């Protein structure tokens, strides 16, 4: 029988801490949250390898972010007691379960009905009582609970919609992986007035979230 608790500890010691994520609360969240339960059954033996995992056979194009990438994105966000967070593209709920241990309240947005249906019992089992799971278009977020101190996009995007930026509190931050041509990197956006100021964090790659592809431009 696989000792997943031991594998979680090994992941933290050999992957997370060497990537300079040493925040005590993030480490605790990673150790307490069973990543294997949020992955497709065939992927569970690889749950603590630093690789993306298929979430569910119902959505074969969607992946859990690899642990180091997800931990570094979360580490960049302003989280803590009293903060409100939103995770967009939460899939089966792993990122929401982590954020539930780091923020006062979490909105988890997922548009794929099958993934949202899987996420609900998994979040309940994880004790994530402060997570509000919302089935909605990812690019629209969830304005009803805005403003947010922190927004996590769990996947890559080719653009960040103004709709999501507008749901940040002034001074709030959004973390994502952004693709531009052959360049793909983690980005952190901060809302300043009505605009967003972005800065690159590190090179990164992830599968594109649905709805975040730029429309092709036609040249005459």
What does this entry look like structurally?
- Helix 4 links the parallel strand 3 and strand 4 (105-110).
- The radius of gyration is 16 Å and the shape is globular.
- The chain starts with a helix and ends in a 17-residue tail after the last strand.
- A seven-stranded mixed β-sheet has the order 5-4-3-6-7-8-9, covered by helices on one side. A two-stranded antiparallel sheet has the order 1-2.
- The chain has six helices and nine strands, in the order H-H-E-E-H-E-H-E-H-E-E-H-E-E-E.
- The chain has one domain: Rossmann fold (3-Layer(aba) Sandwich).
- With 220 residues, the protein is an alpha/beta fold.
CATH architect. name: 3-Layer(aba) Sandwich
Average pLDDT: 95
Rounded to an integer in angstroms, the radius of gyration calculated over CA atoms is 16 Å
* Largest sheet composition: 7 strands, mixed
Distance between the ends: 62 Å
Q: Please, how many domains?
A: 1
| Number of DSSP helical runs | 6
| Structural shape | globular
Per CATH, the class reads: Alpha Beta
Helicity level: 25-40%
Strand segment count: 9
Order of SSEs, N→C? HHEEHEHEHEEHEEE
């Amino acid at each position: 029988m696989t000792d997943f608790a031991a594998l979680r500890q090994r992941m933290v010691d050999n992957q997370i801490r060497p990537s300079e994520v040493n925040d005590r609360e993030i480490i605790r969240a990673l150790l307490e949250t069973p990543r294997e339960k949020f992955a497709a059954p065939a992927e569970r033996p690889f749950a603590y390898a630093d690789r993306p995992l298929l979430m569910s056979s119902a959505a074969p194009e969607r992946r859990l972010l690899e642990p180091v990438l997800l931990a570094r994105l979360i580490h960049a966000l302003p989280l803590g007691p009293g903060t409100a967070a939103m995770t967009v593209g939460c899939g089966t709920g792993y990122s929401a379960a982590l954020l539930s241990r780091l923020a006062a309240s979490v909105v988890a947005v997922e548009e794929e009905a099958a993934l949202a249906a899987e996420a609900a019992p998994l979040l309940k089992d994880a004790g994530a009582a402060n997570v509000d799971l919302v089935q909605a278009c990812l690019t629209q977020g969830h304005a009803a609970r805005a403003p947010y101190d922190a927004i996590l996009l769990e996947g890559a995007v080719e653009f960040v919609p103004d709709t999501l930026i507008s749901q940040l509190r002034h001074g709030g931050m959004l973390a994502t992986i952004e693709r531009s041509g052959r360049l793909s990197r983690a980005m952190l956006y901060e809302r300043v007035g009505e605009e967003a100021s972005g800065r690159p964090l590190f090179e990164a790659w992830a599968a594109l979230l649905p709805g975040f592809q730029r429309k092709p431009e036609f040249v005459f």
